[in-house]
Amino acid sequence: MKCTSCVTSSWACSWCPHENKCTHNVTTCSRTVISGENNPQNSLIKGRQHCPSFKLEEEILLPSGVPKEITIEVRNLPSVV
């Protein structure tokens, strides 16, 4: 399951970015918690806009078998500190 699927589910699920898992029991999350949009608890980190994701302006096409260096911008990655 992905973060966006988790936090937009019909249930009060939350996403644990460091564990890469969806849960109803946030005490199993080691650090940051992204609360689901249907979670009744108030949270500053709530909803799909806080999910880790790639920021792609356009589709990246790469030929098969040809080494190519690319740069992809990401957002909302959990810190490792």
From TrEMBL:
GO cellular component terms, semicolon-separated: plasma membrane; semaphorin receptor complex
Which InterPro entries does the UniProt entry name for this protein? Ig-like_fold, Plexin
User: Example GO biological process term?
Assistant: motor neuron axon guidance
Positions of transmembrane segments:
none
GO-annotated molecular function: semaphorin receptor activity
Protein name according to UniProt: Plexin TIG domain-containing protein
